[in-house]
Write a structure and sequence with these properties.
Order of helices and strands: EHEHEHEHEE
Oligomer: single chain
Helix content: 25-40%
Largest sheet: 6 strands, mixed
Strand order of the largest sheet: 3-2-4-1-5-6
Length: 170
């Protein structure tokens, strides 16, 4: 069994002082929502005893900051957060390539990325179309598979979707 939590980074500043999108930090709402969502996820899965073993993240400032909140909620070390440059401005293909390249010995992982690839991935693994994954939205996709290389539609399915403004699941 492989379980992947895909998280869209928390809300970032729109301050025009940041000329390069990559450098935009979290804004105050993002700084509030990221730890709340991280702790909400940690609490939701604590009864299962199935905690993430690795976090992969885009190296963009806002995405890495979000990943660090989730690492903290799960008592993961800084070294458990792996930065993958292809996740910044990733296509759906890039995101799937990253998933397929996850360490085979890890069964539960978190991937922190950006839209539109996060929303496209949600729709790809869902039985229904997902219009939009909001900032700090959390997707849980799972499959009864042995290898991350087999993580594809039909073998893995979106089973939960959390957002900061909703306590609903899919």
């Amino acid at each position: 069994m492989k379980i992947l939590y895909i998280i869209r980074h928390a809300k970032a500043t729109s301050d025009p002082a940041y000329h390069w999108d990559f450098e935009r930090p979290l804004d105050s709402r993002g700084e509030e929502e990221a730890p709340v969502m991280a702790n909400r996820l940690a609490h939701a899965i604590s009864n299962d005893g199935l905690e993430p073993e690795i976090i992969v993240s885009s190296p963009a400032v806002r995405t890495l900051a979000t990943a660090r909140f989730f690492a903290s909620a799960f008592d993961l070390l800084e070294t458990d957060v792996v930065q993958i440059k292809d996740l910044y401005d990733a296509s759906l293909h890039d995101l799937l390539k990253t998933i397929h390249g996850l360490p085979p010995e890890k069964n539960i992982a978190i991937l922190v990325g950006h839209n539109p690839s996060v929303t496209l991935t949600a729709s790809l693994f869902s039985e229904s179309h997902i219009e939009h994954v909001p900032t700090c939205g959390v997707l849980k996709i799972a499959g009864s598979i042995e290898s991350w290389k087999d993580f594809k539609p039909g073998k893995a399915t979106l089973i939960e979707f959390y957002s900061p403004k909703s306590h609903n699941h899919i």
